[in-house]
Amino acid sequence: MEAGWIFPYDDIEKGSSIILYGAGQIGRCFEKQIRKTGYCYLFLWVDKKAKEYQKEGLDVKSIEAIKQIESIDKVVIAINSKEICFKVEKDLKNYGITSDKIWSPFLHKDGKSGLLDLKKYFYNDICDIHICRNKKIDIHNLNIAFIIPVPIQGGGGHRNIFRVVQHFASKGHKVTVYYTQTEKKEDEIKRCVSEWFYDMQNVTFKMFIGSFEYHDIGIATWWETAYVLNARKNNFQYLFYFVQDYEACFYPMSSDYLLAENSYNLGFFHLCSGRWCKEKIEKKFNAKTTYFQFPVDKEIYYKRRRKKKNRNIIFFAKPEMPRRCFEIGIAALKIFKKKRPDIEIIMYGSQQLVKGSIPFDVTIKRIIPTLDELAEMYSNADIGIVFSTTNPSLVPYEMMSCGCPVIDLDVEDAIYKYGDNKDNVFLLAADAAIFASELNKIIDDVKLLKRHAESGREWVDKEFPSELEMKEFIEGVIIKEVSQKVNKERN
């Protein structure tokens, strides 16, 4: 038990930016609770005896520092003297702070006077996040924090994250993005994200330097960020994990593999991209999950009139990405091309593709300049080969939407990625000789190709949402989950 006074949680909105006025016993007690709970953001701590307190190692500034502050939610006066508080209030008004932004022990909303004595309570109970939970959550005006690795131009994973970030901000929620792995300034990161992905005008960006403000919701977006969020979970009421792949598979068996895998065992609610990811995490960790599909833009990816006369197979080839199994594809297509020199092989998807290094006749396209050209290529192909040994990208589904039948590897639970329907996809063995033999049969079976093309296209048209539908689905899941927990806690 510890002597002191309770911070005015009932009068100060959680997540507020505050100036704490006073560094005596009351001020120190308030500062400790703020630091412990993360209930609000301590923007500035001031006292007339700042120099004395600085000698003690306290981060206390002179009263004059208030003059430099352009905007603040509340000034909290940590003084238990009516006479002194009234004098401080007068000084604050002279600094341009309006009455509605000033709190003192003698200005409670409910008319009470004085400070609540902490001696009556256990300190750790007071500092626990349940204090924050006692205040009502407005599900239509949530305070949401995303924590992300440094944004990368053209990054598909980042695009998906910022699509959701932008949607929450546009719906009136307060959104903060904490970023890691770089020391670039916050305004620079915000500008880059707005240029590369979506307009971030109404989103706050903060470099993560070890602490969070208080937020209703925290959303991890990568296995390392899940640990960061979990270590500071008292700053949040509800935790979610935006899972775009089974990231343990990005590593050989190692510390990173085990840590990435264990991140799904931290107790978050998992928002998974696609059913495969959901099933993997749910089965292995008995974790709470739901899944969504990323949007396919059907105004771009649709079946177009075929212009290419010769038969061709397109291979989404990424030698720099191990989980795309480039080597298996090359070995299988080398065998196939010897049997079928009449079939054109087109490889694309990476700047690292070099024709001279491919052991058979091939057309190299590397990166397709525009999405329209990509859709044209899919519409003109007889088969598209895309290996997705973990969670797939949108590529196979965009191919399907254009009427191009897809081949993937027959690995564990691969059928989950394609609607549990063998007519939607060809799943072939990872053995190069068997793969080539099966491909040779498929390419000449016109009826089989047509059935798979039609089935795949119909499935994508039904299963995959528009961009707006996808964003609204994720928002709906979070609001439903939070609402259920709020109601359960109240009951």
Write the layout of secondary structure elements.
Layout: E1 17-21, H1 25-37, E2 41-46, H2 50-55, E3 74-77, H3 82-94, E4 102-103, H4 123-127, H5 130-133, E5 143-149, H6 156-170, E6 174-180, H7 186-196, E7 203-207, E8 215-220, H8 223-231, E9 236-243, H9 255-262, E10 269-273, H10 274-285, E11 289-292, E12 312-316, H11 326-339, E13 344-348, E14 363-366, H12 371-379, E15 383-385, H13 395-401, E16 406-409, E17 426-428, H14 432-443, H15 446-463, H16 467-490
Parallel strand pairs: 1-2, 1-3, 3-4, 5-6, 5-8, 6-7, 8-9, 9-10, 10-11, 12-13, 12-15, 13-14, 15-16, 16-17
Write a structural description.
The protein is an alpha/beta fold. The chain has 16 helices and 17 strands. The strands form three sheets. The protein has a seven-stranded parallel β-sheet with strand order 7-6-5-8-9-10-11, sandwiched between helices. It has a six-stranded parallel β-sheet with strand order 14-13-12-15-16-17, sandwiched between helices. Strands 2-1-3-4 form a four-stranded parallel β-sheet, sandwiched between helices. The longest helix is centred in the C-terminal third of the chain and has 24 residues, at 467-490. The protein is elongated and about 95 Å long. The model is unreliable at 117-134 (pLDDT under 50).
